[in-house]
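Predict the structure of histidine kinase.
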Amino acid sequence: MIKQYIVERRSWIILFILLQFLLNFIAYMDSAIPVMSILYVSFLSTIIFTFFLIIRYNIETRFYRSLVERENNLDLTSIATPRSPFEILIEQSMTSQAELLNRVASHNLMTLEQEKDELLSWIHEVKTPLTAMHLMIDRIDDETMKTHLTYEWLRIHLLLDQQLHQRRIPFIENDLFIENIALKDILFNEIKTLQSWCIQKGIGFDIQLDVQEVLSDAKWLAFIIRQLLTNAVKYSEPSDIIISTEQRMDHTILIVKDAGRGIDLRDQSRIFDKGFTSTTIHQDNAATGMGLYLAKKAAQSLLINIHVESELGVGSTFTLTFSKRNEFVKVTGAS
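Done. Here is the predicted structure for histidine kinase.
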């Protein structure tokens, strides 16, 4: 540390030495100035300057020496200044508050997990009477009554299904099983579920599958397609919904095209946002704003890109672009 101290003040030390040499040189060259007197003054000045350096060294390096000692001893409290009772009280209060916040956070997390499990259990329990209700509706002879009851049953079924998948979305990675899936089977199962609703609204389907299989998770892909078909049926008048597949640059493309009311251009960038319904028909109480949001979240985990093109009053076209097989395998580790 002495060396560092001298190095940091070398300019002042050199200046002092040069002044002494200059003073003695002038006395040597000028006979009118007594050399011995000048040497005596230089000697005293050097002693005083040396003592000054020593004193300043002790004063200026005291704090840094204490830092070095604390670092060597790894004892942060050995050089700490005595704390007042107020400081100790503040520290204890902060520590207790941190512990309290940790306990509250842990309790809230456990409560949320418990509520989630209870809700999932409730949804599964409700499915049993809902299935029985569907069987009872099938036995009704009055077709008009049967159609209306089936429509209301379907609304409840879809809302429960949406809630179930909403609770599972955060843990979707633990629920994936990647395999080759026949698109025809998934599409026909979903259309069959919506059959009574489609008959009621006079909606048909035109299916053209140039590509028959994709690599994905059957359950979550069915959920995504269910949201797209539900929206297409909900917002369409009597018409055909066109479903097709094609291959573009090694990507499988699934296209769902309807002739419904369409989506306003200002809404198209927001339809996948959580809770967003519409700015065009804002009083639509049937919309929850969750279907497309959940579909987007599930698609991201399946490496599927969802794109929409729509014109207000003309219809909408939703496109699912599946990743290349090697890209999917590289990310997910599927074989």
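The domain at 179-332 is CATH 3.30.565.10 (Heat Shock Protein 90).
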